[in-house]
Amino acid sequence: MEKRIVFHIDFDYFYAQCEEIRNPKIKSKCVAVCIFSDRGGDSGAIATANYNARKFGVKSGIPIMLAKNKLKEQDAVFLPADFDYYSDMSSKAMEIIEKYADVFEYVGRDEAYLDVTQKTEMNIHNAEHLAQQLKNEIRNSLKLTCSIGISPNKLLSKIASDFKKPDGLTTVKPEQVEEFLSSLKIREIPGIGKKTEDVFTQMNIHTIEELRKIDVFDLNKMFGRKTGTYIFNSAKGIDGETVRPRPPTIQFSKIVTLKKNSKEFEFLRENVEELCVRLNKLAIENSKMYRSIGIQFVNEDLSSKTKSRMMKNPGNNLVEFKKIAFQLLEDALVEQEMLVRRIGVRISEFSDMEGQSDITSYF
DNA sequence: CCCTCGATCAC
DNA sequence: CCTCATATCGAGGG
User: Fold this and answer.
1) Which of A48, A104, A107, A122 is the 20 to 30 Å CA partner of A150?
2) Structure confidence at residue A60 (pLDDT)
3) Are residues A192 and A293 in the same domain?
4) A21 and A138 share a domain?
């Protein structure tokens, strides 16, 4: 278990690339894949954009309206997200990728880790050759491009796959780790987002080289034991996480944007009910019972509030589910000042059904 | 040790 | 102008 060779594979601008594959005519244009909310009009956000669009500042997460404004002078297409199609494309690609791995870890529709230590006999040249073959095979069979990072661990490979995109291949050998990381922005470390970055900016810390100078005790004080230690190790490229198949999902959630902002119980109740129905169906499809139920408000100002409750016993009875969800809603509304923009429901603390779903069948 | 809740990340 | 879904951590209270 001493040394490893790990790949991180990332499909380039995945949803937008899928759309280009389906309709190559749009490849020369700006392509933005949109998630429209239930408000109508252009309310919603960008899921992904191709590189033509990114040149104009259009990226995932920004409002559709803003993206349209940025691209108003351009030849651009705005397409509604078609997740079934992307999932199908993803499955086909993952099927190919698995074959190249000793151990395969699915991370999401557009991401995976591979441990290839055995397959490459721990040889970097073999690894680079294998990665190139893999890129070729998925390009030839699906017309899909991806970027791959190769290194001794998951952390470095993830950073490396992001280093050169699209269609990149980046290797970080053990002796190159320090040099590779030094010049990078701390934001490149997965898990360091906007908030964490802001804290370091305040301290005039921008690069990983600068980050390395901070004491682990100080980091622990600032971010807590787990995160502090994680950041400390990451700055040195240290990561012991093994590549392994993903454990089963431990929660399901659904959230909707309300037709209008509101804090009226009856209106919110109807929306919650709909979400309960969909989630309960999902639980049953997956043979899961849940023990915890939660609701979430996203307020007008985008701040959020959650309420949750644990049941004595796991179950998946829709009537019980709704009763608890409505109660949580009522409780949450008591102190509620602001209008609610979006409302969500969550179930967790799963246990498997195992045929004990219907106790009457025992008699 | 268990529960609830907010914060953060990242998509 | 602001989607959707999941996971994780830590504080605070029992």
Assistant:
1) A48
2) 94
3) no
4) yes
Rg (CA), chain A: 23
pLDDT of residue A2: 77
Neighbours of A78 (CB within 10 A): 20
A223, A267: one domain: no
Q: Is the CB of A165 under 7 A from strand B?
A: no
What is the distance in angstroms measured between the alpha-carbon CA of A246 and the sugar C1' of C7?
12
The CATH number given to whatever domain includes residue A143 is 3.30.70.270
Nucleotide nearest to A257 (CA to C1'): C3
- Residue A102 has a CB neighbour count (10 Å cut-off) of 14
Boundaries of domain holding A319: 251-352
- Render pLDDT for A316-351 as a digit per residue (tens, 0 to 9): 999 999 999 999 999 999 989 999 999 999 999 999
Please give the nucleotide, over all strands, whose C1' is closest to the CA of residue A255: C4
Q: Tell which of A143, A159, A175 closes a domain.
A: A175
Q: Say if A244 falls within a structural domain.
A: no
CATH of the domain at A307: 3.30.1490.100
In a shared domain, residues A108 and A210 = no
Q: Which nucleotides of C are covered by protein (CB under 7 A)?
A: 1-11
pLDDT for the residue A232: 96
Pairwise pLDDT comparison (A40 vs A290), residue with the higher score? A290
For the stretch A237-274, pLDDT in tens is: 999 999 999 999 999 999 999 999 999 999 999 999 99
In a domain, A246, yes or no: no
Q: Which residues contact A74 (CB under 8 A, 6 or more apart)?
A: A29, A30, A52, A53, A56
The answer to whether residue A245 is domain-embedded is: no
| One-letter amino acid for residue A315 of the chain | G
Distance, CA of A251 to C1' of C7, in Å: 9
Query: Contact A35/A67 with Cβ under 8 angstroms?
Result: no
| Chain B footprint bases within 7 A of protein beta carbons | 2-11
Evaluate whether residue A240 is within a structural domain.
Answer: no
Distance, CA of A125 to C1' of C4, in Å: 40
Nucleotide with C1' nearest the A246 CA: C7
Which residue minimizes Cα–C1' distance to C6?
A251
Q: Classify each residue of A6-36 as buried b or exposed e, where b means 16 or more C-beta atoms within 10 Å of its C-beta.
A: bbbbbbbbbbbbbbbeeeeebeebbbbbbbb
